[in-house]
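Lecture notes, part 5. Sequence design as translation. It can be helpful to think of inverse folding as translation between two languages: the language of shapes and the language of residues. The source text, in structure tokens, appears below.
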């Protein structure tokens, strides 16, 4: 452990959170450390040996650093008992899980509560209900949200085939405990459902610890829309508008924006009110994201809820002026929501590019290494990162180097600012996805706001054909 002491601002209402344990790494850990410092709260970071050796500034900015174990996440960041013990031994009243790792693990939230550490997020029961897709769909339907047609838990392949026939093809076979776009199987007929069922169940068991599967109607060419909500855990809730995340590769988001170019104020008010109604009914605590698919008729269909801070939260912060990381901490400490719903105003437009250390020439395979140079900046641009020149990108974790967020008075200005920042970036030592983002930002269909979730694969195929 490496204690550091610095003068602190008065803690006021947050006195109970003299110290917060940051149970994550990389860019999200840097984000939470920054929020703590701005609020006058001490931050204690857990870190693997690989991250301790990598040279990250956020670890120097923390008030204390605890080694959680070796580089692989399974031996460090995913060790629940070790993480909670580290929080208790460093006298942290609360713990922020960030995203990924244990952020949506109901057992981990329950373990924190059992040992007297406040989990900055929803309670374990809410997390468990929303983390299982079938129960989340039922809760959403009961709260008045429109839900994609689907099934309950499927007993076997024959039951799945019969349910698929009832729902109507094509369908998506999914893991009840799944997430991150993994394990989704599209099926065009009953034979495909029967064939896919066994492999999907085995994959779900290995990845999520549960073989339970369900079916959803596969909606062709939809747009990925998500609403940011905040709940105080006592029946109070607000929404902060929507984000669009339709630019995806293999169900993984690459570029996000707020507001959606496919939405208007009337849709925002209508669906936002439904999201607030559901969040309040569930007595949800903290930040959450309700994910929907927008169909060609302009209707939204609930897919799932993420019970954590999202990677793409900065675009919402940019257009609302509300700091979501700080809001989560205040709510967990028993404080109020940051404002009333009628005080939320969407100002301008923001677009975020996830800059990854990936090799485009090798099917975007992750490419860890040492950053020889790292400079990204621009007018109206925010860069969220844990890296500086000379830092090492370990092979054990995701490939995210930074999120580059551009805000402007309108969508074209935001896109121009983001493109200028990426074009002027100086990043050496590892390959990145900057060129891909620049190509997307320059594409006429993107500029016209006409991209659905199937657009990027078509764009990549078109680009590859043009290069041959």
């Amino acid at each position: 452990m490496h204690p550091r002491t610095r003068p602190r601002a008065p803690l006021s209402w947050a006195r109970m959170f003299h110290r917060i344990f940051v149970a994550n790494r990389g860019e999200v850990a840097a984000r939470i450390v920054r929020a703590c410092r701005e609020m006058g709260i001490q931050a204690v970071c857990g870190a693997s040996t690989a991250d301790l050796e990598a040279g990250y500034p956020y670890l120097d900015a923390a008030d204390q650093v605890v080694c959680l174990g070796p580089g692989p996440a399974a031996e460090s960041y995913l060790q629940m008992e070790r993480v909670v013990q580290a929080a208790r031994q460093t006298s942290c009243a609360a713990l922020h899980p960030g995203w990924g790792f244990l952020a949506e693990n109901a057992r981990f939230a329950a373990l924190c509560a059992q040992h007297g550490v406040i989990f900055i997020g929803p309670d374990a029961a809410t997390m468990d209900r929303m983390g299982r897709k079938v129960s989340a769909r039922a809760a959403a339907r009961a709260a008045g949200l429109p839900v994609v047609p689907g099934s309950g838990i499927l007993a076997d392949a024959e039951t799945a085939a019969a349910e698929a026939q009832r729902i109507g093809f094509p369908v998506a076979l999914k893991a009840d405990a799944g997430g991150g776009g993994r394990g989704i199987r599209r099926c065009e007929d009953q034979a495909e459902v029967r064939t896919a069922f066994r492999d999907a169940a085995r994959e779900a068991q290995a990845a999520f610890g549960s073989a339970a599967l369900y079916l959803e109607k596969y909606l062709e060419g939809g747009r990925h829309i998500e609403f940011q909500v905040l709940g105080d855990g006592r029946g109070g809730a607000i929404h902060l508008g929507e984000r669009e995340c339709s630019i995806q590769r293999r169900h993984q988001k690459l570029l996000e924006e707020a507001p959606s170019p496919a939405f208007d104020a009337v849709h925002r008010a209508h669906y936002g009110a439904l999201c607030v109604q559901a969040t309040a009914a569930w007595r949800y605590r903290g930040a959450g994201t309700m994910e929907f698919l927008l169909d060609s008729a302009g209707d939204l269909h609930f897919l799932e809820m993420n019970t954590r801070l999202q990677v793409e939260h900065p675009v919402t912060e940019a257009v609302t002026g509300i700091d979501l990381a700080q809001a989560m901490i205040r709510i967990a400490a028993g404080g109020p929501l940051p404002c009333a719903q009628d005080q939320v105003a969407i100002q301008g437009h923001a677009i975020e590019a996830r800059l990854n250390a990936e090799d485009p020439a090798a099917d975007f395979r992750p490419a860890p290494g040492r950053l020889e140079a790292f400079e990204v900046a621009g007018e109206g641009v925010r860069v969220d990162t844990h890296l500086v020149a000379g830092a090492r990108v370990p092979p054990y974790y995701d490939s995210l180097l930074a999120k580059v967020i551009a805000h402007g008075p309108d969508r074209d200005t935001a896109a121009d600012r983001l493109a200028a920042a990426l074009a002027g970036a100086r990043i050496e030592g590892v390959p990145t996805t900057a060129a891909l983002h620049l190509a997307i930002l320059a594409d006429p269909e993107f500029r016209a706001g006409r991209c659905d979730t199937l657009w990027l694969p078509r764009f990549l195929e078109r680009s590859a054909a043009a290069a041959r």
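The translated text above is only one of many valid answers, since several sequences can fold into similar shapes. The chain has a mean pLDDT of 94.
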